[in-house]
Each structure stands twice: as structure tokens, then as C-alpha cells.
Amino acid sequence: MSSIDTSLPDEIASSVSDSEADDGLSKDVIFELLKNRRRREVLAYLLEAEETVTLGELAEQIAAWENDTDVNALSSDQRKRVYVALYQTHLPKMDDAGIVEYDQDRGLISLADNADLLMMYLDTDNHKQDRWDRWYAGLSVVGAAFVGAAVLEVPPLTVAPTLGVTSAVVFAFLLLSIVHVVTNRRREQSVDGKLSRID
């Protein structure tokens, strides 16, 4: 039986051992782990699953993605090729770096503490995109409708002065802007916290 080297390159391995002491990862380790598509797919699958998964189900899903087919349509060779690569190479590397918790004997995999350091580099559907443009556009349409109705004296806006309606729309934009700023500050603090763990 041939032996496959599952270790990280020497310069990367030393970065992992150095960074384990301060609970972080170096950029070299992060990019070494992310450069392989299968490891990125492992992260995407675990992020979506949000629980411990078996090696079998993980290998099947990655094989299905790679072959652009359904899990039920996979051949045994397609399954085996991905299973062996995950078992012997990818999952041990990710476990050594603290990205996943991999119980090789039981075939169980889950996200570990350092996984969030890699997630910010991935474009996954689970990460909510910044869609503030939709909020501002929606408020613009609603505000324009209210101001227009006030100018045209459409009931029930005839009781409110046009200046009052316009002021209310401006105030709504002010509130939305404050919420936007607070949300962005929190996101920046979260990212800064993660970046502080990267050497």
C-alpha cells in the first residue's frame, strides 16, 4: 500500500504550529488551504449543513458537484475518487490547521474554531450580501409617492402639510442611514476581530 503525504508544506506547517499558540492562522496557511477547490467545497458544504456530517455524505455531494450531476446518478468510481482524496489528504490538512474537526476513525466532520477565518474569503450563499441599495431604493419610491400625493393633495394626505410629509421622508432616510452605519461598524468590528487572528 502506498503512503500519501498529508502534511502541509514545511513553511506552511511551521506557520500552523506558530499560529496555534496565539489562536490564529497565517495568510500563507489560509491561502494554502483555500487554493484547492475540494477544500473550498468542504467548507461550503459544512457551512450549509451547520452540523456534523459523515465522510460518505460529504464525498458524495462534492463528487456530485464536480461531475455536475445528482448524488443518485454518481458511479462508484466518482464517489471513491473524492472519498479517498478527502480521507487521505484534504480533511487531515484541514484538521491540522484547526479548520475542521475530523474524526478519521468514525468518519465524522464538523467545522472547528478557525473555520470563520476562511469563511470571509469564500463567496457563499449563506453569507448575506450587502443589499442596502434595495432599502434606499424602496424608501425613495415610497417617499416620492408620499410627497407626490401630498403635493397633489390626495386624501388622506390633504390633512398633512407638504412640508411635514417631506420632513417625515427625510427623517426616514436619516434613520435608515443610522441603521446602515451601525450595521457596517459591527461588520467591520467582526472582520477586524477575525483579521487580528491572522498573522
Detailed description of the structure:
The protein has 199 residues and is mainly alpha-helical. It folds into 2 domains: 23-125, Arc Repressor Mutant, subunit A (Orthogonal Bundle); 131-196. 63% of the residues lie in helices and 5% in strands. The chain contains 8 helices and 3 strands, in the order H-H-H-E-H-H-E-E-H-H-H. The protein has helices at 10-21, 27-34, 37-49, 55-66, 76-96, 115-119, 132-151, 162-195; strands at 53-54, 100-103, 108-111. The chain has a 3-stranded antiparallel beta sheet. Strand 2 (100-103) and strand 3 (108-111) form a beta hairpin. Helix 7 packs antiparallel against helix 8. The protein is elongated and about 75 Å long. The protein starts with 9 loop residues before the first helix and ends with a helix. Residues 11-22 have low confidence and may be disordered. This is Transcriptional regulator, ArsR family. The chain crosses the membrane at residues 135-152, 158-182. Residues 31-109 form the DUF7344 domain.
